[in-house]
Amino acid sequence: MKTPKFYLLGKCDQSNPSSIPLDTIQRWEQEGYITYLGESSDVRSIIAQHSCIILPSYREGIPRSLLEAMSMSKPIITTDVSGCKECIKTPQKQENLQIGENGILIPPKDPHTLSCAIKTILKLSDKELKTMGENGRKYAKERFEISHTIQTYLNTVAQYSKTNNLNLVFISNTSFGMYNFRLPILQALQNRGYTIHIIAPLDSSTQLLKDAGFIHHEVKINSKGLNPFEDLCLSFRLAKLLRQINPSLVFNYTIKPAIYASMISNLLKLPNIAIITGLGYVFIEGGIKKKILKKLVCFLYKNALKKTQEVWFLNQDDRDTFLTHSILSQHQAKILNSEGVDTDHFAPIPHDGKEFSFVLIARMLWDKGVGEFIEAIKILKKSHD
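^ that's the sequence the OP posted. Answer follows.
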C-alpha cells in the first residue's frame, strides 16, 4: 500500500464559535500528523498536487472545495450529510462505506470509518483512481456547471424584475463571498444591461467588486453577533439604501441578510429572493443554548420570509428542514444545484504523482471535521507502525 502524506488548507477563522486555535494546528504539525498550508486565493495548483480531497464536515450547503476538486478530476471523501452527500454520484454501500463513481461517503464524526475510506483510496490502482477522478469531472459538468446557475438567475430576473428598472441589489455578509462565489453570475447580469448594486461590509474583495464595475454600498454586519441594537441599526441602514436604489429585484444571501433584508424588502414591497447557502452553526445539534437560538432563528426566518417570492436552497435536506419547521410554504421553496463551478477555470492540471497525498480544504473549524481527520491519521499511523 502507498505511504501517504496529509495536509490542511484553509483559513483559521477565530471569529467562529467552532474555530480551531492556530496553536492546536501547529501542534499537530509538530507531531508530524499534517502539514498546514495556510490559506490561498487560488487553490487550483494545490488541488492539482494532491491525490484525493477530503471534507468530513457535519453539514454544508454544497461545499465549494469539493466541487472544485471534482471539476479538476480529483476523487473525494466526504460525509453522508446535507450538502456533502450531493457531491457523490450513485453511492453503493460496501461494508461500512458508501463508494460512488467519484468518491466515498462516510458517516459524520467517525474517524475510524474515515481511516477505512483513506485505505480504500490507497488500494486503488492508478487506472481506478484516474477513472474515479474523471467521473467526478463529468458529474460536476453535468450537475454543477456555473452556466446552469447563471441561467437560473437570468430566468428569475426576467420573471420578477420590471423592464423599465435595471437596478438589481445583492446583499451579503461579506464582499469576499460575492466576489469569490458569485462573480460570473454578477457579470452575466451586468452584460445583459443590469446595474449591479452590492450591499456588504468592506473587506479585501470590496475594491475588486468596484473594479469589475459594480456599485458597492457599505454596511456593517456582525454575522455571529446577537446584539439586537446592532441588528436594528443594520435594518435602518438597509431600509435607507433600498429606498435610495429602488431596485427591481433583491437577492439576499446568508442568515442575517436573508432575515433582515428580506423583511425590509417585503415592507417596501420590493420583489426579493432569499438564498440559504447553508443552515449554519445553530442547526447543528447542541445544548440548551443552541436549541433556544435555533428557535429564535426559525421564528425570525418565518416572519421575514412570509412574502418573499422564492427561497433557494442548495440541497434538499435544508429545504426539508425549513418546510418541517413551517418556516415557508411549499411553493416558495426551490432547489438551486449549488452556486456553480466554472469547469473551464477549474480544469485538470497534470502533476508529477511522486507523492500520494490527501488534503482537507476548509476553514479551520471543528464543524468541518478537522478533528476527525486528525484522529483518522493517528489510526492509520498506529496501524502502519
